[in-house]
Automatic annotation (TrEMBL), chains A, B, C, D, E, F:
This is 3'-5' exoribonuclease YhaM. Residues 162-278 form the HD domain. One of its GO terms (molecular function) is nucleic acid binding. It comes from Jeotgalibacillus proteolyticus. GO terms for biological process: rRNA 3'-end processing. Keywords: Exonuclease, Hydrolase, Nuclease. SMART domains: HDc (SM00471). It comes from the Bacteria. PANTHER family: 3'-5' EXORIBONUCLEASE YHAM. The keyword Transit peptide does not apply.
């Protein structure tokens, strides 16, 4: 079945969808209605449920699965779903929430294998031990959390997928620039955003925890590294180097790093992070655009719009 | 005996002084000389030692005490000391380095008493316990370190003196604004710069440690609070609140706080810190200026120059 | 009777309210209606008056008092008032506009007494005379105007209340820092925003006057001080000092002060002004928030949201 | 006789010069000397007076005229004057300070005539009367002061010359854009920098007065206009308009105008001021440069360097 | 017949209008309607067409002419047109699109004559030849295009009108400042925005071309000058000077000029461009405002609002 | 023979060196001397030549080779060369300037081979043809010029070496991110700084040409691509894409790109350029630093200083 975002105006719809958001409204004549945003793996679409009473409001809350029938129509240049029928899914329907969530394109097990391999390649035993300890401690969340709540890699397992992409880049850069210390760079990449598992509330529909709000994932992770070193009775420069890699990876004070990178590997970590995040943002909007046209504006890329060259037609896709 | 910075051109000099800085130079005709900066508690003064050989260079290094004779003369609007005689002090002279260092105007014991009193006034047992633990742990350095390497309170015991000044302000503000939580504010003030005892190398001629450079006193202290809580087996919101107070006390990301204040008490801590630091900077330059004139420019106060009103003559001094 | 903002959905309403704002609308089917914002001392609430003709529009204008009956309902997470009955108040009802306006928590007479006391404490006769003259000249407006049209102290007598709060802080600071000149600081505080009585149109629903728009309260007050000195035939440094205190109290050119503070007292005036304004803003949103939750975002505080610690429950409230 | 800045290395010198600046120095071997900067109408040149005793220091102070003999030599790419003889000028020499100062290229009387003509053309009697009153009050200084202490029009009568240049531009602009109010624009130009006669200490070697430092020429002039209106018993919008023209003429808060231009004529005044000042700055450096080369960098023009095209050779000069 | 924007609430309307914009809407009860923006030479006005079917949507698209009847009414402080009748214009009506478009107040032929005269006055044959060649090449579009898609001179022939206004200013400035090279300045003005004929899609309802988006009018024109020089076999400094005039005319890198002005004439070109654009923006809003009131805010003028003095009543209009 | 920058104080020197810079000075007693900066492939060192007459000044100019004898001494923490003997090199000495210049570590022929291979891999014939044409046109300079006059790759053949480094990175990124168009990215990298061959004066001691100053290498290259397309009679989107790649490669208007990247490949080109330039800057200062210490500050890296971890000792070097 085609994803909901690939349908065209006039197409009929009859399928299960996840309610991502549900908001109550009142028409100017006083009639209540619900604005529902449905989601499947391809993205989301809006619909109105007219004459919705208090009971409907309870039945159709966010995170619940429904069976809908209706058709796609175009309203102000955007597709909407005009509902004919809607009912909550029951256990008998045999559908689960995971079927509707976007997920990294590589299975968790495979990502864990690759990660293990990168850790295995480290030569410095202190760095290796600290990294392995922290990965083990947070393994479950690390493999399930998104890399961010919006902008880039905001999907299930997005964090691990982002980290592995960065490790692949790091591998080729350390080959091209032998002066780079592979252990520091690999460990820095693996740990740089691990604090997100404490900053965010969960793998799905993540919001900020109190710790996340008041300290942020960078400070949380710097603390974690310090405590891990204490527990493992590790001493020496490596602990401080890794704390600095995490602390400085946003690159500048105004972007959230109280110290700028002062290690060659910390500077390069910042570039790799940036490059992979931006590629992810650009790919998303360019994939949704026809050759010869401009994408929608992307707020996190200085509100720029990107052009998809016509030559892509023959060569890239 | 009058401080060295209060002498006028023509005044004779014969006394002990501490060498703050010693730099070798060569005249354009190739003759070596030393530029010496002497210091006593009132401040410092420059002198030249002509025809200084390698031996002189070794004898007259920074941190050594000397006996000098000569006179004050004015060179390009600034006082200098023209040397007639100089010799290193010997143990027989019975002078010690402490006699030449600027020190907080309140003795350490008295400051410790006042601090204890403020901690005693706290009602929240968790905050009180954590604060007491950390003060005890760093007590010696906390009472001896400067508050900064330059700009404000850059003298022996400057850190404790700055903290107590801030506590006095906090006391009157909590009386005027009863909505402020006294425990949070007092503890935040006491801990806010305590990381400096790890960031700086010592109480005198302080430079930055490796930890200080790569993590900074804010991150160091946030970690310390976390570890102290672990050791004391303390849990609950208070730990996070205190970590946030320290983390946010520079007020803005670009000033080194990765999170801005999100507690009323954190916001007020930032103001009190600023106010006391600026008072200290202004007092120094205004004290050196005659009524009816402008002070030198102060770099840390946006390079401003301050006017000392003539009316100060009768009223303030 | 409970303030309108403290009622919950379902509560019946039958009371007098002030119309703060009245805006005409038309439904998409062409029927006219009025959106009314009602106010009492606790704040404001919105209501719709359906099928409102031209006559209703005239009857229910801003600044008029009405008697309403209806009930509270919740619309998109915000309380609204569903009107059943509404009529204009008549003289026979015996209600006056003052009953519906937020006002400083201290009576005008008491504030005037405190102000007089502060002026009485001044030792410099010139500063005292100038300050007394200007307070006398603008006494009525000074005691009634708000301190601003929005953001902080935006209520009846807000200006005087803000000034007195600042004077109380100044009193404790001059005790802690004896180098501060009390006369300059007190007079600077009293005069700093007095130009608002010319900048704003009145004590209630204040807007900007033409002078306010084109010159601003700072320039207006600097001129006033100059003219007052001329009238009183006062000469000497004090006039210039006070003009500078007012001129520089926003702290920086980009914040509206063409000269930055160049007097120690001017710098401190700027901090005190800031501190009291920010306390007022934070108190308002924190008072409306439950312990353990974040406040709404405050635009004038860099759009920050503040956390209200759970420990407040037992200790502060 | 050729101006001192037009001589070449090797040229003999025997003439009167004004000492612009005199600074005492000491060679590294302890011998005192004087660094003298001489000036005539074409600019200035440096010289050293070796073995200069205390008496020489007194004889050769700034603002005194001397007779010198020597020759030009080149030192690090800049011309210097190598002194053979020097003596103070005596009354018998019959030279006066005015002969050595750069002055506007139009005589004061002629500038006053032109100014009178522009005032005469005004149709609004209030604006005309206020302008005439203020010009009369400050006439002497207005015709003698420089427009600034550095950057542009920093010569005797520079203020009046700058104002007249601006009035000429205003005349052609009001012809091209009839919507501009000629009276407001002319009066705004005449008054915009008149506060400089209070801000600066005098027509020659001007420094800032205390009023100038603490209030600035903009605030000083806004006050003056207000007081003039009071004295002349003038009321009405025109006073406020002129105050705003002066207040806003720097264009932005960060450039010293607490209010931005809110009158069409105030906006245009800002542009004309800018244009004439920048022309003056560029002309100076380009005049000193050969066609086909770049000028020195100009700090007040964002540190830019300007190219003088080769085509200028035949066409412009 | 009076322009549509000069009518008052209650005035009847019966005339031809151009549809500038047409947007489909749906009422909350599901009924479709059209929001139409009509335009004539005086500006535009909004109207609602209720119960509009798919056929109406096709009939009443942007750029089509209609005959309407109805009346003006005021909705939320803005005039709207309440439609009674509407029908598409037919060829028999004899109306053409040009009658509804705002156009420069000077005919194209006259502007071309003036332009030819300015080119004729140039003395440098290279500059003259290059300028004439490029004007000839783009003559048709140059005389028809707007100067911008919004903000200033956004009307038919706005580009040529803006250029001629600038040339008139340049003529008086070169008379006042003889050091300015008239040929460079005139040619720079004529060419500075000529790249807009490639950047924009057409004279009416202009949007950006692909070249316009990816390179911009400045780079496009710099290239054009280079190619024209090649075709005409012109060599020498003049080509580079003109390319620099165009390249630098936005004044700063952040405003789109990769190099700041480094020629006196380039600096002045930037000021003249700015001055004429701002006059055009201010005149528009001030013309729509009554004396004694403030204009609406103008986004492109730092969101300022301008005051129209009362004295304008007698003198200017 | 060891490079001049690796010698220690006390080491004797007797070798050929290139004079990089020669500046005349005069001692305070009037004796002329020369400050010479000598260079070999390892870097440079300063020396003084006392009592240097006009003849010496001519003999020892920049770009001439000399034979020197003397020894290294330390002056204010920096090594200097104390000269005992100096004479100009003669043809008989058989030394050439190339022996003293830093050069890319890969021979030009090899770099050309690699470049040819990258061009060969392109699939789009238009991009390939344009790139090949431009490389051929500028081949000699492209292989010899530095990438910049300072900051990074400022050595002979630095431009080609930087481009090849970037191509290697691009090769691995296009493997990791298949959505990237290899042809556009390779061609963009090859052309992005080719304009430097017109912007700079030569391969050694490069300064800016007039074209370089007034237009800059970006605009120069955009023009070149346009003209090459004309000569080759190439049309189509590719020309515009490549012009945009070059135009936007500085990333932001304030960094010299009038348009920001609007192609995915243009964005990535900007990152790769940045990454390789920064690696080069960091490697240089870190190579000169001992493990466990901080490097000197690097102005082009926000004036940061980098830490060289102690663990480098065993692992990296």
């Amino acid at each position: 079945m085609k994803g909901i975002t690939f349908l065209k105006a006039g197409d009929p719809v009859e399928q299960y969808l996840l309610i991502k958001q549900s908001t109550k409204g009142v028409t100017t004549t006083g009639k209540p209605f619900l604005t529902l945003i449905f989601q499947d793996r391809s993205g989301d679409i809006e619909a109105k449920l007219w004459d919705a009473g208090d009971e409907d409001e309870k039945k159709y809350q966010a995170q619940s699965i429904v069976k809908v029938a209706g058709e796609i129509h175009n309203y102000r240049g955007k597709n909407q779903l005009r509902l004919r029928q809607i009912r909550p899914a029951t256990p008998a329907d045999g559908v689960s929430i995971g079927e509707f969530l976007e997920t990294a394109p590589v299975p968790k097990e495979e990502m864990m294998d690759q990660l293990t391999q990168y850790i295995f390649e480290m030569k410095n035993p202190t760095i290796q031990r600290l990294t392995r300890h922290l990965v083990k401690k947070h393994q479950k969340e690390f493999l399930e959390f998104p890399a961010a709540t919006k902008n880039h890699h905001e999907f299930v397992s997005g964090l691990a997928f982002h980290v592995l992409s960065m490790l692949h880049i790091a591998k080729s850069l350390t080959a091209l620039y032998p002066s780079l210390n592979k252990d520091l760079l690999y460990a820095g990449i693996i740990l740089h955003d691990m604090g997100k598992v404490e900053e965010l509330s969960g793998a799905v529909s993540a919001s900020y925890t109190l710790e996340g709000n008041l300290l942020g994932h960078i400070s949380l992770m710097v603390n974690e590294i310090g405590q891990a070193a204490k527990e493992l009775e590790i001493e020496g420069e490596e602990v401080l180097m890794l704390q600095h890699m995490v602390l400085s990876h946003h690159g500048k004070a105004e972007w959230g790093s109280p110290k700028p990178p002062m290690l060659r590997e910390a500077e390069i970590l910042h570039y790799i992070d940036n490059l992979d995040a931006k590629m992810n943002m650009m790919d998303r909007v360019i994939n949704r655009t026809k050759p010869g046209e401009f994408t929608e504006r992307v707020f996190a890329l200085e509100n720029r719009s990107f052009y998809k060259p016509q030559m892509y037609e023959e060569e890239n896709e």
